[in-house]
Amino acid sequence: MILEAPPKPETPDSLSLLVERLDMFEATDLADLCEATDAAILSLLAEWEEPLTAPMYAQVRYHMGYADPTARPGKRMRPLLGLLAYSALAPDWERALPGAVAVELGHNFSLMHDDIEDGDRERRGRPTLWVRDGVAQAINTGDALFTVSRVALHKLTALGFSDARVIRLMKLYDETCLRLCEGQFIDIAASAKSEMQSVEHYFEMIGRKTAALISGSVESGAILATDDEETIERFRTFGWALGLAFQINDDLLGIWGDEAATGKAPSDLARHKKTLPVLYAVEHAAGEDLATITRLYATESPDEGLVAAGLDVLERLGARSYTREQAALWRERAISEIRAVSALNPHAITRLEEIIEQVYASGERALVFTHFAEWGQKLAAHLSSRFEVPVGCYHGGLSRGARDALVTEFQALDGPGALVLSLK
After folding, report:
1. Alpha-carbon distance 411 to 381, whole Å?
2. Which of 86, 211, 365, 372 has the most other CB atoms within 10 Å of its CB?
3. 137 vs 375: CA distance, rounded Å
4. Are the beta carbons of 99 and 220 closer than 8 angstroms?
5. What is the pLDDT, as a whole number, of residue 16?
């Protein structure tokens, strides 16, 4: 995929502060935001921990990968989105940390319960909490995570935010969590049925289960930063489109992902996951192709040969291409939505998140074209270090022919990585 940063706006608009804040934000390392979010989470947990209940908070820390050198912590993408949205509109991102903490804890409460509901025995290479400590404890600790996430939002009042703004944010958070539960209900119900749901029905599900939380994360940052309702709405719809793109990309990884890059084996077919590529294939399959998919999903423990046959059907029917196209479509919708607020400069926070969540988390490559060589070099070094993938970096003027040749050469390479092209 090729992501080209748009030029800087030549004239200021109603949100000229956006460009100013993005320029300032260039100097802020994304790792700093992650570390600040983690520190705030640990501080909040410590406030409530007592000797008698210490093991419960230790369960939270275990699930989230704290104080465990063998753990692969999550990328903190959702709180990052909220902080970046806030930073696009206001200078003091630290004030928005309680909102970021709430989002991350809320996300992890859902993951802890999802692991039980889905029967997942591992998360990021370690036993899930219910496997380690039992279902009852995992349910209770998940409930605690949800409660502590709401407690975090009350800290916004002490930071000077008005009661009305805090209440609005809490309303958004509660509505978002309800949508998330609705999405999980739809997912569980669909998984229990032998027949496949429609592609249209699937988009309804992932809108609630995935896009709602990402959209809520972005919207929360905007709510804390501005009173402009049009701006808040643009950020909300941007987050929704980005959330759909993220989930669709995750569907690709579940079937065709690189385990070394993603941290999990591409086992969706073997586990009978009814994700977008499969649903698309079923809607377009007939004869032996349809029989193969039906047989695969009716077999309790399909062998490698049957899984490979199902994979061949998906490829033959264009399921991978369709899913990639849908991911690209929703990414473009996200970009167009945020551009409707203000033209983005090469330091756009939304672009950084796009790279992180949809390229580096997936182990796919990206070609990133910016206008500032120094920024491109810094971004390449940061991403290579944080995500432990090779990152190539090229600086200087580049003709379209030379660029296309470089792209072709890069795409022929094996393994995950990225090529960052910074055009002066």
Report:
1. 20
2. 86
3. 46
4. yes
5. 35
